[in-house]
Write a structure and sequence with these properties.
alpha/beta, Rossmann fold, UDP-galactose 4-epimerase, domain 1, 7-stranded parallel beta sheet, two-stranded parallel sheet, 13 helices, 11 strands, 13% strand, globular
């Protein structure tokens, strides 16, 4: 059968493509970008186009038995662009799926729909509580998607935590660069909050599982995250230890640091967005019991596994001289550090 993947050149989309092709599936991808050189697996067909373009979607979805909708915006994008990509893009994909009579769509949402929940671990029943343009768009788009479920369309919704793995840059590149240069790394407060993350391979496994699951099991909403995770200080310290310079995680007074970073964000001098700042101040993890019980989901990687494997991949990229880019437009790009790049001299 044919499976179409939107956002197929991104970190998640390309990982889904690689896994499905390895499983013997005929895969078609759609993305604004071409796949990174040398990454497209044999037999894979790629269409360059926008998920908001009905003509591009018709071309990519022709003959598809299922769609995996990975295309998304980053929280750092302008608010109008986030909404256009996330909400309007999802609506266009859903309409195209219905028009093409595709029987199954895997919708990649986010735990951002919970906003900054006070109930931890957070269950799927937690109400939508968005707090910024990104989480609002993700919540609105998920509501829209669930409304398309009917007798002819099975629509699993996956809500992953922040995922890492080979190919991931974003804000993690800042941690990796500072560690490699032999610098200490700051955290807000004492860093003893428990922040759940996720290896991209475990998310891909969840995608494959809901593609294959019976309709009555697949047609549900699932939190996806690591089962084993410690504190933010422990995960960051693991990277510093792996770099081998003997550096340490350094605590910053929480309230002054939060105020300073918030000001830098508003003046566009820092890429660290507001919801992330507040999320790092409290425990943040979701209940994955439903995925375990109904899907048999069993994450292979802990937080530390995911962070360290990503760091090793990043080191290999530097050693090989492979350009990583610096646009900050995708999770594959290292985000521009802004004024924070100058601050590293103090650490």
């Amino acid at each position: 059968m044919v499976i179409a993947v939107t956002g197929a050149a991104g970190m998640l989309g390309s990982s889904v493509v690689a896994r499905l092709v390895a499983d013997g599936v005929d895969v078609v991808g759609l993305d604004l970008r071409e796949p990174a050189p040398g990454t497209a697996p044999p037999g894979y067909r790629h269409f360059t186009g926008d998920v908001r373009d009905p003509a591009a979607l018709r071309q990519a979805l022709t003959g598809a038995a299922a769609v995996v909708h990975c295309a998304a915006a980053l929280p750092s994008y302008p608010a109008a662009q986030i909404r256009s990509i996330v909400v309007d893009g999802s609506r266009a994909v859903l309409d195209a799926v219905r028009a093409a009579r595709v029987p199954r769509l895997v919708y990649i949402s986010s735990t951002a729909v919970y906003g900054l929940p006070r109930q931890v671990p957070t269950p799927e029943e937690h109400p939508y509580a968005p707090v910024d343009p990104y989480s609002t768009a993700k919540a609105d788009a998920e509501r829209l998607a669930v409304g398309y479920r009917d007798a002819d369309l099975v629509l699993p919704v996956l809500r992953p935590k922040t995922f890492l793995g080979p190919g991931r840059m974003g804000l993690f590149s800042m941690l990796f660069q500072w560690a490699q240069e032999g610098r200490n790394f700051p955290v807000l407060g004492d860093g003893q909050v428990r922040i759940q993350m996720l290896h991209v391979a475990d998310l891909v496994e969840a995608v494959v599982t809901v593609l294959r699951a019976p309709a009555e099991v697949a047609n549900d909403t699932y939190n996806i995250g690591a089962a084993e995770f410690g504190t933010l200080r422990e995960d960051f310290q693991a990277v510093l230890d792996a770099a081998g310079h003997g550096k340490r995680v350094v605590a910053l007074p929480a309230r002054p640091a939060l105020a300073a970073l918030g000001l830098l964000e508003r003046t566009r001098l820092s890429p660290v967005y507001g919801r992330l700042l507040h999320k790092l101040m409290d425990d943040s993890y979701v209940d994955i019991g439903r995925a375990r019980q109904r899907l048999g989901f069993s994450p292979r990687y802990s937080n530390r596994d995911a962070v360290l494997e990503t760091f090793r991949w990043w080191q290999g990229q530097r050693t090989s001289g492979t350009p990583a880019g610096a646009s900050g437009r995708t999770s594959r790009d290292p985000w521009r550090q802004g004024v924070l790049a100058a601050a590293k001299v103090f650490f």
